Amino acid sequence: MNKLLPFLLIIAASVAKAQTIAPLYSIDRSRVLFHDNIDKEQKKLFIQPGSHVRGYIPLSKDEAFNAQVRFAMLDKVDELQQSIELDTLLKDNEKIKYLKGLEIMTRQIGLGTRSRSFSAALAPETVNAYAAALELDRENKGIDPVVRDAHYWAGKILVDCFSYPENKGIPASKSILQVKYLQLYPERTMPFLKTNFSYPTRDSLIAAEARRDPRKVYDYAAANDALARYIRIHPDPVVKVIAEMASSRSGQLYFPFIDDIYRGKMTFDEIDKVKNNDLEYYKLMVKTRMHHTSRMLSKDTPMERKALVERMDNKARQYFISKINGLHSASDAVRFKILEPLAPHELYYLCVLGEDEIYTSSYRGVFKRIIQRLKGVPTDSLFMTMNFDYFRKFIKMAAAYNELDTLLKLMPDSNATVLMKSFMFGLEKTTDMNNVEDAVDVADAYSSIFEKNKVLAANMLEEARWNYDRAQRNGDPNGQKVYFIEKTLFESADASANIDLSKALGIPPVYTVDYNRLADSSGRIIQQVFFYGDDDKDGQMSYANFMRMFRGKDDWSITENADFVTIKNTKGKPVWIFANKPLYGEDDPDTKAQEKLRAYLDKEGLEPTIFIHRGHSYHVKSSLGQITPSARIVILGSCGGYNNLNDVLTISSDAHIISSKQIGTRTVNEPILNAINTNLRNGQNIEWMPMWNDLSKLFSGESKERFDDYIPPYKNLGAIFIKAYRGVEEEE
Strand 686-687 and strand 512-513: pairing? Predict the structure, then answer.
């Protein structure tokens, strides 16, 4: 803002000059009010002199852009006022009409930019379009040619300006605007047609929407109204397929295969043969996905590929992963029997799609069977078979579960080198937070690789530096951004390099959490813990173990009711912990308990800054849905996949996340919570590195292995990448 201050003053001075000094031309008394109304609307646009009130039009960091908008809305509008007032050929009522139109235009631009309906960049175009439309109107010609050439929002404003009395081109302009509107907002096509069923170009609109968003057309076709009935007799081949699906009770099961059915590569009968068999239906989806990825390599994008992956994901978790997770105490012969019919490529998708839920032992069992069923074929052939689909995630998971060395040793050394170069290459394709997962997976993988394979880690660092230089040579700003973050994260893993990630990446501290950022205005630190009742009693046992940390302790007091418990320390700085009870039964009683706890916290004005998830990984989504932007520390305990990290950081961009590669365990959870609470009761900042170093000394044997599966915030390179990438994005 400091850089903008001089320019803001110039704008303020311009507004003051334009609107406080009397114009150098005479205004007829009958029209003074109309000129004044325009001037008032102009004053609302920018920061008013001597006022801290923000104007309607948000100023940008681009001073040239600001100047263009200012010139259009102040100087150009003033010029139009003058030309209208001094035009001797215009009658009094015509001058009033055009002055009122200028007032409407100025107001609409201000309101539209303030509500972000459109950008202030449209202001110059709209003002010029108004001037052109005015010339046509005074010649008694329609303004529709100007509307046709204008942006939708500029045209819409013109129609509002020239409707009273109505310009002869207004009806045609409205038709033009309707087309422009649906082109600008295609997702509103079907709702529009539902209330405008007889729209002249409905056939082409439905056909276009069927290709853009088949799911939406499917939903409308499944209704029982005139539009649905029309969709069912639509002649377009894609719409026909959608309509047939929507008419069937099995429509949702057909939908992932819509592209293949439309292209004649699959029939409804083929799907009917497997749709009621979980195993065969999953196999068919995998086969279809592999066919799709092959087409995508040739820049041929199938329709609804996302729907296919979502259905695969759901089937993989429900039919396979949940079962092998649930049998974690059974023998391998029993536990993994369900996997016997699956080929390596089908097992591959179980791993990558089940990342957030698969237990460590479950993953290792699946990985082992992939290797066995390759029967000595080099492992790099698997990636070629998969068309390298999700290959970064597969490598990241292999690294996390200490299987990467096995994977790489079972292929020729030269191929392993090429594979890891490919792992690092092309991350610049990341262009926004919806497409950053590959880069996050690479960052996460490095944190595991650095601990286990220094040589491979050094090679990855060298590749990150080489790709950064490549992005610089190519003048690729996004590539420079991505690889600068990656190489900086990699370099920071070596403690001897003394790299401060906060300074290097321009993000808030990652090694410490200031005590004052955790305490509320009354000096209390509020924690919320989520528990879940389970049929296997896991949540109930977890809650009982958690409460043993506080029961019978002189320095803690406990208050209970039917739904939740309140735990407060009696010594030191105030730490208040609230946890719902893990109730099990019909109608999700633990969910209702969480709702009652949230209502209590809201009523009492208590805002948690520490959130803790305890329980199976399939409950994580429920916990994430209740975290608030006040979160500063989030302990997931059972998983830390990209989707969960991204969800947390979307809610609270500076949250410090502790996650685990597998299900949390009380032998690790409780020492971590005790260490955090001890610091907080002493009024101390949370210093992650010394705390983690002290904690590591408490464990040995199996418990040490469990502790090593927990990732502290400063080593959570995936989360740090998201923070850094978003931070740079917002700054730009």
Answer: antiparallel
